[in-house]
Amino acid sequence: MTISVGDTLPAATFKEKTADGPVEVTTESLFKGKKVVLFAVPGAFTPTCTLNHLPGYLENRDALLEHGVDEIAVVAVNDWFVMGAWAEKSGGMGKIHFLSDWDAGFTKSIGLDIDLAAAGLGVRSKRYSMLVEDGVVTSFNLEENPGQATVSGAAAMLEQL
Hints:
Elements: E1 13-18, E2 21-26, H1 27-31, E3 35-40, H2 47-59, H3 61-66, E4 71-76, H4 80-90, E5 97-100, H5 105-109, E6 113-115, E7 123-125, E8 128-133, E9 136-142, H6 154-160
Parallel strand pairs: 3-4, 4-5
Antiparallel strand pairs: 1-2, 3-8, 6-7, 8-9
């Protein structure tokens, strides 16, 4: 079953690269008592993710925060080394959370996994964005075409705030 507006996010643990190495980030620590924009990409360093989806959130970070958002996070089914390298290469380190869902546990638990083995990627996440308030999904935007980042992009999220 796919997560939808009104649902509470399931408990999960991600890994995130820091200057001191990887840290565990739980859904409770990230979402409890906060308004968080979470967006997901099929893969770090992939074209649409790197050239369109992520840059929109980095460019609109301040505007999102000005609209009451406490945190912004991107999640992908990549290991924390890859997510950390993407954070550094994109200039996003320390600006948004780059969360590794290394085993697709979170992605599968919310029903947003997709098998991209035919493209050489394996199990990945569908492209989406959501606004989560105190752990509850208040807005959810799923891309129909994984090669686009329009309904799940930062501009669309800003319109919903």
